[in-house]
Automatic annotation (TrEMBL):
Subcellular location: Cell membrane
UniProt family annotation: Belongs to the UppP family.
Lineage, opening ranks: Bacteria, Bacillati, Actinomycetota, Actinomycetes, Pseudonocardiales
Protein name: Undecaprenyl-diphosphatase
InterPro entries tied to this protein: UppP (IPR003824)
One MF annotation (Gene Ontology) recorded for this entry: undecaprenyl-diphosphatase activity
Known function: Catalyzes the dephosphorylation of undecaprenyl diphosphate (UPP). Confers resistance to bacitracin.
Keyword Nucleus in record: no
Reactions catalysed: di-trans,octa-cis-undecaprenyl diphosphate + H2O = di-trans,octa-cis-undecaprenyl phosphate + phosphate + H(+)
Other facts noted in the record for this chain: Bacitracin is thought to be involved in the inhibition of peptidoglycan synthesis by sequestering undecaprenyl diphosphate, thereby reducing the pool of lipid carrier available.
């Protein structure tokens, strides 16, 4: 597919704005391209531009990630470190990453094709928006990351793996699981960001070979989109971490449901082709 510089700039902005909000960046990339008549940017473009937003996570949480890596490394050869909270968090990030690795490889063909149907995107936007609302309302929010266990880590991980379907939202699915497990909004959100780092880098690096091919976006526009996503994503992280200290996820739920309904109407009325761009 041919992708121009302006298209890459817009999609990079969309990626940076939506990656960390519980509204699904992959859905917004898919919808933006469809509405503009650009066609589906593809799973490879989405995966590679997400590297930019994860670099923003590493920069924002640099001290935290540094402590976790140092403690985890020490725990490899010093048994007394294996009970250290940062070392345990490192191991639990690895455990939580297993579901998306396994399911990502098993469902690769569906991820690149069937899952990108706009009707599926609309449905997941609504359904997982409702689930986020329920979790935000009923979650007891008394646990911190120091209380994270292996079963909880796997629960987070399977929730993250649902984001292989555009519309679910990596952060939204993971935060929903965390709230249902009793974790505070801030801790559930922080772990969602940290858990995404190995998964996104793994996916992005795996998809690098698909960039620059005959039917894929070219390197120049993809790099531009990735850099834009990095800069915008960093600002969004800072805003969201401050927002959730005093606010709930309800505004994002309302937005998800409204967008999902609008998408269903556009597809049902023939304005959008569920498999491509504008039908008119």
């Amino acid at each position: 597919m041919s992708m121009g510089w302006f298209e890459a700039l817009v999609l990079g902005l969309v990626q940076g704005l939506t990656e960390f909000l519980p509204i699904s960046s992959s859905a917004h990339l898919r919808i933006t391209a469809a509405l503009a008549g650009w066609g589906d940017p593809g799973a490879a473009f989405t995966a590679v531009t997400q590297i930019g937003t994860e670099l923003a996570v590493i920069l924002y949480f640099a001290k935290k990630i540094g402590r976790v890596l140092a403690a985890w490394w020490r725990s490899l050869y010093r048994p007394e470190w294996r009970r250290h909270p940062d070392a345990r968090l490192g191991w639990l990030i690895i455990v939580g990453s297993l579901p998306i690795v396994v399911l990502g490889l098993l469902l690769q063909d569906a991820i690149d094709s069937a899952f990108r149907d706009l009707r599926i995107t609309a449905t997941t936007l609504i359904v997982f928006g409702v689930l986020l609302l329920i979790a935000d309302r009923v979650g007891r929010q008394y646990r911190t990351l120091d209380q994270l266990t292996v079963p909880h880590g796997l629960g987070y991980g399977f929730a993250q793996a649902m984001a292989l379907i555009p519309g679910v939202s990596r952060s939204g699915g993971t935060v929903t699981a965390g709230l249902l497990l009793g974790y505070t909004r801030s801790d559930a959100t922080e772990y969602a960001f940290l858990l995404a780092v190995p998964a996104v880098f793994g996916s992005g690096l795996y998809k690098l070979t698909d960039i620059g091919g005959e039917n894929s976006p070219q390197w120049g526009p993809t790099i531009l989109a990735t850099l834009v996503a990095f800069g915008v994503g960093y600002a969004v992280i800072a805003w969201l971490m401050n927002f959730i200290k005093t606010k709930s996820y309800v505004p994002f739920v309302i937005y998800r449901i409204a967008l999902g309904v609008l998408l269903i109407v556009l597809v049902a009325t023939g304005v959008l082709d569920p498999d491509a761009g504008p039908a008119l």
